[in-house]
Amino acid sequence: MSEPTHSSLGLTPEQIAKFQEDGFLVLPDELDSSTVESLLKESRTLLEDFPLDSHPLTKFSTGETAPHVGDDYFLTSGDKIHFFFEEAAFSSSGELLKPKSQAINKIGHALHVLSAPFKNITLTARNRAIAASLAFKDPRVLQSMVICKQPEIGGPCPSHMDSTFLYTDPPSAVGFWYALEDATPNNGGLGFARGSHRRYGVGKRFVRLAEGGTGFQGKDEEGIEGEEFEDLTVKKGGLVLIHGQVLHRSTRNTSMDSRFIYTFHVIEGENKYDEKNWLQPGKEGFSRLNDVA
Ligand SMILES: O=C(O)CCC(=O)C(=O)O
């Protein structure tokens, strides 16, 4: 495994200022091509190897057309490697229309613990230094995933802020999002409402419901619905840092190209982690970036 091509120091003052202004920051060429290849190879192996017969066929639904995913397979995935299907991978009668390796929307949520190639690019001195640049005192990695955006059927990810899902008091989530393939407006790339983290608080929360499952509580602040998005092109190997309150989304992928990305999220360990969040720490707790040598 090669080291990231950048120095293992943190962000420059200009990069920090841009992140604070825009709510996101693109760092091209963060991973070299052999590292990207090894991560793609690991992703493909995971997709080929998971058993279909014992899988509950959980789909990753974002709550637009079906209730948000919230079954046990999802709720217990925080310390495991689980596989969530694309909604469009099934016929109306529930039959799988694609080979399983081309039918998965995302793999999550403990790749940074259980998969050596992903752990090796997550728990790094570089990422510890990036987090320190963003004023984290005790950065903890709490979830990680590969989002596949499969050709033709890759589902959209509607506009959201990550602190809705990973709430701390005060809010502190930051996403680290790595393109493993070129992510463009054509294959479901990322789009941002630039500066929106400065315009809105965390009005809506995604929580475990008392009656079981998951759901949204509260309401987005006024104006959020009318925000406009700029679509980015991020070349493979690029890293995008995402402020926990910036609105972002990705579109459906109807192209013939997949769009594999790897993302993990960090929260401030000194802030109160909310017990209503869907994702709760296992007995090991969340991974401390400060423990990285
Ligand atoms: O990559 C995507 O499609 C969306 C990722 C995202 O919104 C997130 O990780 O918060």
TrEMBL record:
User: Mind telling me which PANTHER family this protein's record contains?
Assistant: PHYTANOYL-COA DIOXYGENASE DOMAIN CONTAINING 1, PHYTANOYL-COA DIOXYGENASE DOMAIN-CONTAINING PROTEIN 1
What InterPro entries would the database entry show? Phytyl_CoA_dOase-like (IPR008775)
| Gene3D superfamilies referenced in this protein's UniProt entry, alphabetically | q2cbj1_9rhob like domain
Give cofactor(s), names only.
Fe cation
Name of the protein in question = Phytanoyl-CoA dioxygenase
Which SUPFAM superfamilies does its entry note? Clavaminate synthase-like
Species in which this protein is naturally found: Ascodesmis nigricans
The record's comment on protein family reads: Belongs to the PhyH family.
List GO molecular-function terms, semicolon-separated: dioxygenase activity; metal ion binding
Q: Which UniProt keywords apply?
A: Dioxygenase, Iron, Metal-binding, Oxidoreductase
Top-level taxon: Eukaryota
Keyword flag Nucleus: no
